[in-house]
Amino acid sequence: MITMEKNILLTIAYDGSVFHGWQRQPAARTVQGHLEQTLSRLLKRDIILNGTSRTDAGVHAYGQRASFKADIGIPVEKMAMVFNNALCGREDGAFAGAPVRIVKAEEMPPEFHARFDCKGKKYIYKICRGQQDVFLRNYRYFVKDELDVAAMNEAASYLIGTHDFKCFEASGSNPRETTVRTIFDAKVIDGDSIELHISGDGFLYNMVRIITGTLVEVGLGKRKPGDIKTIIESKDRTKAGHTAPPYGLYLAEVYYE
Amino acid sequence: MITMEKNILLTIAYDGSVFHGWQRQPAARTVQGHLEQTLSRLLKRDIILNGTSRTDAGVHAYGQRASFKADIGIPVEKMAMVFNNALCGREDGAFAGAPVRIVKAEEMPPEFHARFDCKGKKYIYKICRGQQDVFLRNYRYFVKDELDVAAMNEAASYLIGTHDFKCFEASGSNPRETTVRTIFDAKVIDGDSIELHISGDGFLYNMVRIITGTLVEVGLGKRKPGDIKTIIESKDRTKAGHTAPPYGLYLAEVYYE
């Protein structure tokens, strides 16, 4: 028996400020729920997405990934356009576009799975100095006082490598096999915003937000850059800094082989 | 009898995407309604704001102005901070800030009125080329095709001066004494966005949005820059272009003597 089933990998951008996170919930608007409903209606069959990251409410994405299998006739090179038209409703310009967008759709081998085959991720966390800006309130963490970005960047360098990052895991998280992770790169860049760019083979729950809160405390002079080493060695969440808010966080990239 | 009543002028920034326009409405969230409720609660008396511009749903402001009179004890230099704390609820950073912000509060002479004393306004209209961006969907007009910005800027130059702008007034608008207005300056600037900066002594209903729609048609090559002159002379709305959507429009400044 010949099957026409395709295994499709989507790259998805979304504005997290209008969603209760990625994961499907019965009574809340989520990215997964919204995409599954739209694709199921469009393709006239039940679509179940395997997403790479369960981003929290308020967290954004430039490059979330999700895969699904379906026997669909749309050529892969037209899928992003067809899906986006369905997500937007219409594209005549008289309409403020959809908060979620398919950046890319590609066909993968049948055994590929967006989450299980993921080899790592990159997150960006965006901070603004000074007064709140009404247009950026859902997209940046505003810190009133001056930040020493060079000190934050030095502090970030101590994250690189393979460590037990238990100190940066939200307390009360479900027990995991291991809290050891490898950070490939971590740097703090100064520009219109101050941005933490961090990539690694995996992240614990709230890890990037707790790292950001700790780096902000370094930037404010409340901690020294080298304190990061002692905090990591302590394996103690209470030794690390505050959890930065969700709306400054962006899932930037997901890596595969 | 000595009165302590002050006449306060506010400069207000807001993200129009979460409001049904400026003007108070019984059953919809508007900027005026939201501000009046917050200030009335804070100051423990009924506050009525005289706003300069009744911006439409989706339209943003960097510098809306509104005045009110009240016998209040807060020193004028602390008002913006006190009002913003009330608007935000709290300012501890764990909270995505308020969509409306008092940029400045100043005390004016008793006879001053924010709307009647207004001598002119500046608007900015922001356009992006290419594909929709989920983070800018409420803040830019997306035009898919390439735009000739130099041609748009030439077209804009024909707007400068005193003209009867009836062609750029939404059809069905309430009859006015005159549709003659003076445009002080109008230019189209190329950058991250394409921006129309336009200032004048007053604007008809939807005037900046219809001008923008007409300039976009010039940018797309559907009209010539010099057509603006003929359109103005026609005094005929049907000769002008489409009405650009509200969410690209920003009330930038209000001018007084």
Gyration radius of chain A (Cα, Å) is 20 Å
Number of helices of chain A: 5
Would you count the extended β strands of chain A for me? 10
Oligomer: homodimer
Main β-sheet description of chain A: 10 strands, mixed
Q: First CA to last CA of chain A: what distance?
A: 31 Å
Question: Strand percentage of chain A, roughly?
Answer: 25-35%
> What structural class do helix, strand and pairing data of chain A support?
alpha+beta
Q: Output mean pLDDT of chain A.
A: 93
Shape of chain A: globular
List the uncertain runs of chain A: none
Largest interchain contact: A-B, 31 and 30 residues
Order of helices and strands of chain A: EHEEHEEEHEEEHHE
Helix content of chain A: 10-25%
Describe the protein's architecture and organization:
2 copies of one chain form a homodimer. The first copy, chain A, is built from 5 helices and 10 strands, in the order E-H-E-E-H-E-E-E-H-E-E-E-H-H-E. In chain A, strands 1, 2, 3, 4, 5, 6, 7, 8, 9 and 10 form a 10-stranded mixed sheet that branches. The first copy, chain A, has 257 residues and is an alpha+beta fold. The first copy, chain A, has helices at residues 31-43, 76-88, 149-157, 207-219, 227-234, and strands at residues 6-14, 50-51, 60-70, 100-108, 120-129, 141-143, 161-164, 180-190, 194-200, 249-255. In chain A, 22% of the residues lie in helices and 28% in strands. The two termini of chain A are 31 Å apart. The interface between A and B is medium-sized, with 31 and 30 residues.
